[in-house]
Amino acid sequence: MFARVHDAPVRSVRVTVDGRLVEAKLGDSVAAVLLAEGVSPTRVSAVSGTPRAPYCMMGVCFECLVTIDGVGNRQGCLIPVREGMAIETQQARREAGR
Amino acid sequence: MTGIGDLQAIYDVVVVGAGPAGMAAATVTANAGFSTLVLDENAGVGGQVWRAIETTPVMARPVLGPDYWAGQDVVRAFRESGAQHLAGATVWSLDANREIGVSVGGEARLISARRVILATGALERPFPVPGWTMPGVMTIGAAQTVLKASGLYPSGATVLVGCGPLLWLYAFQALQVGAQIQAILDTTDAGQRRQAVKHAMPFLRSPYLGKGLKLMAHVRRKIRVVDNVTDVAIEGTDRAASVVYRRGGATAADRLMADTVLLHQGVVPNVNLAMAAGVAHTWDDAQLCFKPNLDAYGGTNVTGIAIAGDGAGIAGAEAALERGRLAGLAAATALGADPHRLPDEKAVRRSLQRYEAPRAFLDTLYRPAKAFRIPQGETIACRCEEVKAKDVTATVEIGPEGPNQMKSFLRCGMGPCQGRLCGLTVTELIAEQRGVPPGEVGYYRLRPPVKPVSLAEIASLEKSEAAVKAVVRS
């Protein structure tokens, strides 16, 4: 569970997470939005299907892999949100065709 | 520079990483008149230590503190130098001819450089304890990243576990924004405290002392600190719910409820790109990691490739700046720079010495305990392929002597993170089981691409006539 400091007026950006409309902030990474929204797990592991969520937030652990605008296995912590972005958590053990 | 289309085919200097070392190196070479490009996979400059320095929503300056805001001057000098910066740029290959494979937004290019400076920094040391793969468990660095970049702080019951300067700095920052930190479970090894005394003098004279003591005293007044923690396990079903821990000598375990568990036990060089480019590394027993073999300017065994910053061995942001300047100076000199357009090397070295001298104390004091580096039993060592500690130790018994052979048996290090989160753990597990030093066991053999790149990106690369002739039958 994460909250935001109420410091600066930051422009909002609307994205969807698994189809649900979510208000993100300009400057957020995709993984930060998932943390702010309490989305958990953000994927399940490819080997045994255990729940996972962002771990390092700096591009090294690959735990925050999500599907962005239809492209799977993107590193959510490295990709800034854009207006209208469609984010999907990766909940199936294998997603053939992606 | 906004997109991959703006890239030239060749630059005098390409720097990988826009943190302190990368910006400082690029500022030197650009000021000396050389075309300089900085590639960084993040959205902005600053690296990890000054992450989001141009965009952070955390406006109250005391929260992130003067060491964070000091980065503004470095960024200003970098911007004024005329060095080009391409954000969101993932470097996935570098070879001995200094050809660099880079992708931006799903498009790839190959570019060349007369000199390459790797400033890929550090990553947090793996912290393999039971339950560390569960949602709700992150690194302290990760929590600090979302604070800097998005102004996010953990709002539920939070427990910090581990040791090192970053733990105390983050606790201080999180307190100021209102995070509810239940406790700090300090895993600093009691024996290391005694050992560290030997190295205390340079630390006592360093700029770190005053800052560190003030920070720790403040945090200890506000947060319960449990010292000498020797065992940690995170429990929960779908996500972290509690932390079970034991103090040195105690037989009974204690339990703390926690929605968020933040782990940290220091940082280690991010070696993937350098190793894949053929840079030789050696095990460093003081910092318990592999470090590149470097000359006094960060130069490596690969001609024209240098390493600056924490990727050269952990020394912190201020030392990274000076190491960046030295690497920039050497690159510019090799390219024939006018010495009058370069910084004063003696001054740079004096400053570097000032920030490197206290490291022995910090390295000794915060040397992570064996129990937190070399896991046992069911604890996951390789998060991607879900390889348990006991699998690695049992497999050593049937033959493999190093991490590369271990891959064939267990797939450890073969998942998407390419060994970044298990490399040191697997090396140390094998070394422990074999009873040999980690340097003898070695590290994963790393190869390009060091970051995932799609076949479409590779297929879209411009092909030279020679490359086409190599595969097309006429």
Number of helices of chain A: 1
For the residues shown, what is the average pLDDT of chain B? 96
How much beta of chain A, percentage-wise?
A: 25-35%
Largest interface: A-B, 42 and 55 residues
- CA(first)-CA(last) distance of chain A: 30 Å
DSSP summary, beta strand count of chain B: 22
Largest sheet of chain A: 5 strands, mixed
Low-confidence stretches of chain A: none
Number of strands of chain A: 8
The coarse overall form of chain B would be globular
Report the end-to-end length of chain B measured between terminal Cα atoms.
Answer: 41 Å
Integer-rounded radius of gyration of chain A? 13 Å
Strand order of the largest sheet of chain A: 3-2-8-6-7
Characterization of this structure:
The complex is a heterodimer of chains A (98) and B (474). The model of chain A has no long low-confidence stretch (mean pLDDT 92). In chain A, the strands form two sheets. In chain A, strands 3-2-8-6-7 form a five-stranded mixed β-sheet, with helices on one face. In chain A, strands 4-5 form a two-stranded antiparallel sheet. The longest helix of chain A is centred in the middle third of the chain and has 7 residues, at 30-36. Chain A is built from one helix and eight strands; from the N terminus they run E-E-E-H-E-E-E-E-E. Helix content of chain A is 7%, strand content 32%. Chain A has one helix spanning 30-36; strands spanning 2-4, 12-17, 20-25, 43-44, 51-52, 65-68, 71-75, 86-88. Chain A is mainly beta. In chain B, strands 1, 2, 3, 4, 5, 6 and 20 form a seven-stranded mixed β-sheet that branches. Chain B has a five-stranded parallel β-sheet with strand order 8-16-10-11-12. Chain B has a three-stranded antiparallel β-sheet with strand order 13-14-15, with no helix packed on it. In chain B, strand 4 and strand 5 form a beta hairpin. Chain B is of the alpha/beta class. Chains A and B meet through strand 1, helix 1 and strand 5 of A and strand 8, helix 5 and strand 9 of B. Strand 1 (2-4) of chain A pairs antiparallel with strand 9 of chain B, so a sheet runs across the interface.
